[in-house]
Amino acid sequence: MKVDVLLGLQWGDEGKGKIVDVLTPKYDIIARFQGGPNAGHTLIFDGQKHVLHTIPSGVFRPGTKNVVGNGVVIDPVIFKREITQLIAAGVDPRPNLLISRRAHLILPTHRLLDAASEQAKGKAKIGSTLKGIGPTYMDKTGRNGLRVGDLTSGKFEERYDALKAKHLGLLAQFPNFTFDLASVEAEWHEAVNELRELQLIDTEHYLNEALDAGKRVLAEGAQGAMLDIDFGTYPFVTSSNTIAAGACNGLGVGPGRIGEVIGIFKAYCTRVGSGPFPTELLDETGEALRQAGGEFGATTGRPRRCGWLDLVQLRYACRVNGVTQLAMMKADILSGFDKIPVCHSYVHEGEQIPNLPFGIEPDEVTPVFSDHKGWQEDLTGVTAEAEFPESLSTYIDMVEREVDTPIKVISVGPDRAQTIKR
Ligand code: GDP
Ligand code: IMO
Ligand code: MG
After folding, report:
1. Given 7, 14, 120, 233, which is the most exposed site by the fewest CB atoms within 10 A?
2. Residues lining ligand 1, Cβ inside 6 A
């Protein structure tokens, strides 16, 4: 069997959690391969809303195994909180939760370093989620990190102290940054003790053997293509490979084992944090999209920046991910606009171009829009494609043509049930 990969094609928050939940009955295993508690994946069903950060979105479907792969970074405190909240909601994820020994741990001092670095950057800050993501991946590539597998080593405390000492040395370079480590550290050690009790395994063997045995695996991406460390709007990106290739090194499966690549995008576009966003609307239309779409971060509560669909950006994301099929989210939010502008190319160095260039800051590209006819109908009760307003159907056709990839799912509301498969 192959691993299908589901990922975000914009700047995150496309609705990945919802679609993973919808697709989970087709799979035996759902596996997260990168990112960590910077993610916030929302699932809504039976009138209940759940937000997951590190635990895969397959957790609500009985019998599905959920793997936290080696490419993920884990904050034991947030992980523990997620488990507690799930148990309170009636789902104990622990029997079906498998955690890679190779996943790196976010230390309290990683979180402090994230905050200190952001504070020092001032106006140039990334707008990170302050979860310690950047510093943890820096320690991973710098070969200093602590991994889940180290939790069972007799030298864990010693290694923790050594890394903490190194971090305190770095924090001393930020004299204006004050912090209280003792309280967060106690909480962290308590959470680590609970993490140690979970199923910590070599997920690369588990997954490859499961595939050999005919099990179906879905890899769940976090963030989105434009936040990818290599292909995103660097430096305003996250610190992992969010694209499909990240599933190979974040899970330990070979590229030949990748099957479908399912790309998720909003019918418009949002971004949270700093960095360029060519189609951003800084006017009342942007505010209208934010209110209608409830565009406030699932992890940080920050208002999301809103703008029109950017096909240059989407084309790029399809290309670097090798997307084989698309899911278009939040079509319902576009109801009520007379016309919907869509960016199909950029003007760059005096030339109109269809492909994303090296830089997309305002002084580097100007988006070129064409107006698409809007629709007035409320879509939230629509249950079949035959009920789509004509201008929604032409919007879907236009996107498929522009990015040369089929749209297989249209989402018309946040609930699991508000999903139309084509
Ligand atoms: P993720 O990070 O990609 O999983 O996405 P988030 O959960 O951060 O953000 C997506 C938001 O949109 C959540 O509040 C979802 O409940 C909501 N959502 C997902 N699909 C739809 C949809 O088709 N229509 C509407 N109105 N909301 C949706
Ligand atoms: P999901 O999985 C949206 C953004 C942050 C910031 C940048 C770097 O829910 O789609 P980091 O904390 O990773 O160092 O922040 O990336 N960011 C996200 N934006 N959705 C996410 O995850 C995000 N995870 C990180 O806002 O701009
Ligand atoms: Mg999110």
Report:
1. 120
2. 8, 12-18, 40-42, 44, 294, 298, 329-330, 332-333, 411-414
